[in-house]
């Protein structure tokens, strides 16, 4: 059982796809809290947005108790007990289940409003299929960019078999990638505030993990730059640490999707899809794609995070 805690554009989809190839049958739950927190993330006390606006959890669905309940139902393969807001993620991100096209209509709000026996049966059939996939799996992976490491200690207490992968990336690379997908418009937004909020959040999460003692062995710190420095070697070390296998399929997939060649090189702009590209090149693209002025502004707001990651070698395999 593996839980990936990451941030938008840290390479979490790539890492999730890599983990999926570490066992014969994998049950992969992609962003279960997408329908719960939306574009925000949950820390110990609040639901916080990327502009640093934090609000108290809105109702039971966003409560800490419900968060643990959702994780428990997924890990126990009791998906029929999940709220609709979580289940709709199974059909939104179709590569997660491989069955979503048949279930897309069944879980649409328009179809559900009918309340007919047909709609109920179709939804039940979809969930039963997902539960079967889950029960037959050799490993379970949950990936989320919506949970802080504030919960890491309590989550490991609640699920002792679970390993948490805390995935980080150079903030300059994250920001460069977010600019590409128009997540941030540096011409219109208060960019310095945006940079500061991102880096403060990551700094807090890293310090939280570093302060953990007894259960540190259940947390794998992973840097995207470290993983892609030598992708084949990094993948072998990483998979070994999480208890999965480096297989022929793993190597084939890595060669296909993370090693650059003239025929497969493409721009890496999609939010949720792993494209054929050079992962090492992607990791360091910010150095040539960001202006020196913008790099200076990011360094000014994120120096504390950059220094911490460098000095502590956080995420080194």
From TrEMBL:
The domain of life for this entry's organism is Eukaryota
BP term (GO), one:
N-acetylglucosamine metabolic process
Where would I find the Sulfotransferase domain in this sequence? Answer: 1-303
Q: Residues of the signal sequence?
A: none
An example of a GO molecular function for this protein is:
N-acetylglucosamine 6-O-sulfotransferase activity
What Pfam families does the record tag this protein with?
Sulfotransfer_1
Stated name of the protein: Sulfotransferase domain-containing protein
């Amino acid at each position: 059982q593996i839980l990936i805690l990451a941030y938008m554009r840290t390479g979490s989809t790539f890492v999730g796809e890599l983990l999926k190839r570490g066992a014969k049958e994998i049950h992969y739950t992609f962003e279960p809290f997408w329908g719960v927190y939306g574009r925000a993330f949950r820390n110990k006390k609040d639901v916080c947005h990327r502009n640093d606006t934090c609000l108290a959890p809105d109702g039971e669905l966003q409560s800490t108790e419900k968060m643990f309940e959702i994780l428990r139902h997924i890990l126990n393969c009791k998906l029929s007990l999940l709220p609709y807001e979580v289940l709709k993620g199974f059909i939104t991100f179709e590569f997660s289940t491989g069955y979503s096209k048949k279930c897309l209509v069944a879980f649409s709000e328009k179809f559900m409003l009918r309340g007919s026996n047909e709609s109920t049966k179709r939804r039940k059939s979809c969930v039963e299929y997902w539960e079967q996939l889950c029960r037959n799996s050799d490993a379970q992976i949950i990936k989320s960019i919506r949970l802080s490491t504030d919960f890491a200690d309590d989550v490991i207490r609640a699920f002792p078999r679970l390993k948490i992968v805390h995935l980080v990336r150079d903030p300059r690379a994250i920001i460069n990638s977010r600019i590409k997908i128009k997540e941030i418009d540096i011409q219109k937004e208060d960019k310095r505030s945006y940079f500061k909020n991102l880096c403060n959040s990551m700094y807090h999460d890293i310090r939280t993990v570093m302060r953990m003692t007894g259960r540190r062995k259940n947390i794998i710190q992973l840097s995207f730059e470290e993983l892609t420095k030598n992708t084949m070697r990094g993948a072998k070390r990483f998979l070994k640490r999480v208890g999965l296998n480096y297989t022929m399929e793993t190597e084939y997939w890595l060669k296909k999707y993370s090693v650059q060649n003239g025929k497969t090189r493409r721009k890496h702009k999609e939010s949720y899809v792993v494209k054929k590209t050079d992962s090492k090149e992607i990791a360091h693209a910010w150095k040539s794609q960001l202006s020196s002025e913008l790099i200076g502004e990011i360094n000014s707001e994120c120096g504390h995070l950059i220094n911490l990651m460098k000095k502590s070698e956080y995420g080194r395999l």
